[in-house]
């Protein structure tokens, strides 16, 4: 299997770095091919701009996703984007390794999504979700947080983990077609002792040795939705973003 | 009132730019003071790094949030961060104007959160959520999307809008103490005609003229949670991230 790990931490002494090394070593020992995009080490530019295209379909006002579609056909992305696209197309499994910042990925990784998950290849007229360009591939989040598990759970002060990761797992990875594995979360990493941290590394290694046993996040195929883009009446919601929600706005004052 | 608008679009001919101008003009006409952080025009650096600190509390391994706490006390952030912090502290209302990319903000704005919402001032030992540093202030998202409203609603193919914006509205804005106003969403902006677009500008102006009538997103004060960080048994969940969720993982194979 071919595995791409996209990694977003600046410190080689971080626990994220230890998780990365564990993943590389474990997967390599299993006979898999592993490539790493170390975004900080690469000085990856996260800011989408006109400079991302070597030639333009439309002059003047930049319509970023329309230029992406053109650049897919012309292979005219900037070199850094072409290189990252090639890695994503190459891989069977994408792993995102990052510290959780503001319920999300660090900006350097957000910009990797913005610039590399391109219209016309990852999604677009070709389809999205189970029709997305990356269908048949798998993706998994591995993240670290200072939170304790009970905080990020049903009724927990930080809200449900599925809500926290919804925009990444559903809105990004599943959107382009990946099957999304249950995330691997290292909890309260700063407050743990070396023994607990070693156990997290061991658990990650064990998971990567038995990837076929890792549960998938439940998603809805597009066929679950009607022509009005709503879940069909006979389909029970299977995600936190599709279930019935009774919350309402608070009146001001 | 003092209003800070943080804006993340590179094109002055974009509809985001038109929304920004409408907001500035409307709020100014109402007698409010308005400042704009035009992140693309500022060439804002979204990548958190050691360069964000003019002096360090700890040598060697960078613990970003601990250095933030030190830099708050020493006023030793890099000049670009100090300037943005001053604007946030100055404002009574924060408006985020951005195109929705991957269910989230563009990377240049994510990096503004990463670098400007600093530990020791916006959150930290001082508290978070209703005890956060920005308590008493309001914040509002104004975003544009190619989606149609029915897609981003209960049972819609993209999932509920509250799930999409959860990491921003709850995990970022409410986390640091802001009262969060209902978001202003410009739907399917590319597919609308000029009349429909003009109507969106008018609706935004009307909203900004009557800010005190805009509903707030329901949140839970910290007193709703017990010492186990879970919602107390007698408190009904009021957010999409706190409600009961019956989803489960799919067994592999």
Round the mean pLDDT of chain A to the nearest integer and report it. 95
Shape of chain A: globular
Give the SSE string of chain A: EHEHHEHEHHEEH
Count the beta strands of chain A: 6
List segments of chain A where confidence is low: pLDDT < 50 over at least 5 consecutive residues: none
Number of helical segments of chain A?
7
| Ends apart, CA distance between termini of chain A | 58 Å
The percent range for strand residues of chain A is 5-15%
Commentary on this structure:
The structure is a homodimer of 253-residue chains. Chain A has 253 residues and is of the alpha/beta class. In chain A, 30% of the residues lie in helices and 12% in strands. Chain A is built from seven helices and six strands. In chain A, strands 1, 2, 3, 4, 5 and 6 form a six-stranded parallel β-sheet that branches. In chain A, helix 1 packs parallel to helix 7. The longest helix of chain A has 16 residues. Chain A is globular.
Write the layout of secondary structure elements.
Two copies of one chain form a homodimer.
Chain A (H helix, E strand, L loop, with lengths): L1 E6 L7 H15 L3 E6 L25 H11 L4 H12 L2 E7 L7 H10 L21 E7 L16 H4 L1 H9 L4 E2 L3 E3 L7 H16 L44
Parallel strand pairs in A: 1-2, 1-3, 3-4, 4-5, 4-6
Helix pairs in contact in A: 1-7
Short summary of the structure?
The structure is a homodimer of 253-residue chains. Chain A has helices at residues 15-29, 64-74, 79-90, 107-116, 161-164, 166-174, 194-209; strands at 2-7, 33-38, 93-99, 138-144, 179-180, 184-186.
């Amino acid at each position: 299997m071919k595995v791409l790990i996209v990694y977003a931490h600046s410190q080689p002494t971080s626990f994220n770095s230890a998780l990365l090394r564990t993943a590389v070593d474990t997967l390599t020992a299993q006979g898999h091919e592993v490539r790493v995009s170390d975004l900080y080490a690469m000085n990856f530019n996260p800011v989408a701009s006109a400079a991302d295209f070597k030639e333009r379909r439309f002059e003047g006002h930049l319509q970023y996703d329309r230029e992406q579609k053109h650049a897919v056909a012309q292979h005219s992305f900037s070199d850094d984007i072409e290189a990252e696209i090639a890695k994503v197309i190459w891989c069977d499994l994408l792993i995102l390794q990052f510290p959780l910042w503001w319920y999300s990925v660090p900006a350097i990784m957000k910009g990797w999504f913005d610039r590399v998950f391109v219209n016309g290849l990852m999604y677009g007229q070709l389809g999205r979700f189970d029709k997305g360009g990356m269908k048949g591939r798998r993706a998994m989040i591995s993240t670290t947080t200072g939170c304790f598990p009970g905080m990020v759970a049903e009724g927990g002060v930080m809200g449900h983990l599925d809500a926290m990761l919804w925009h990444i797992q559903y809105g990004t990875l599943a959107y382009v077609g990946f099957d999304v594995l249950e995330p691997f979360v290292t909890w309260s990493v700063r407050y743990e002792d070396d023994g607990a941290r070693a156990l997290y590394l061991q658990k990650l290694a064990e998971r990567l040795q038995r990837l076929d046993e890792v549960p998938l996040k439940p998603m809805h195929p597009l066929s679950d939705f009607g022509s009005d883009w709503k879940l069909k009446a006979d389909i029970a919601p299977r995600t936190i973003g599709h279930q019935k929600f009774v919350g309402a706005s608070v009146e001001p004052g």
